[in-house]
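Contributing new records

If you add data, match the layout below exactly. Sequence lines come first and carry their own label; structure lines follow with theirs. Keep one chain per record. Anything else will be rejected by the validation script.
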Amino acid sequence: MGSDKAQLELGGVAMIVRVARLVESVAAAPAVIGNPEAHRALGLRAIADDWPGAGPLGGISTALRAAATPWSLIVATDLPYLTREWLAYLVARGPASSADAVVAMNEGHPEPLCAMYHERTERVFRGLLERGVRKVTQALLDIRVDSIPPAEWKRFDSDGLLFKNMNSPEDYEEAKARLAGPRGE
């Protein structure tokens, strides 16, 4: 991307703030995993990453360690098409599940960066990180996952964009254009 995706603006709001507000609308006050000073400047509560350089699995493990509740909603900051309705559904489904995580499936692959995780997964993820595992999808193999099929999550987004993230300047331009339309801000 050439810059920090979390700082990119959609509708005049940094992605990280936009996602935090969305999460806050359905769950407790969110915490951002990363540089506390940089995120506090945006008015966000931040927690230093226990596993810097370990990617999303390290961030998830850190968030679960710091969580004050049994279930945590984990959301990446580069998902511009998330909806409040989808996140509310996830937040309700987590505590109702007997699994360790509630994760949507998209074209046969899990979407672990917009999911619910139970606190018991933290020790599993920590153990994996200590052994050098960095892929969240690999970590999911060591826990019980309540998978949400596309037919179920597409009720919240018939276009199938919920999990489309911004990995390139073209993705960012597309998100700006889509969100400026009737669905947008």
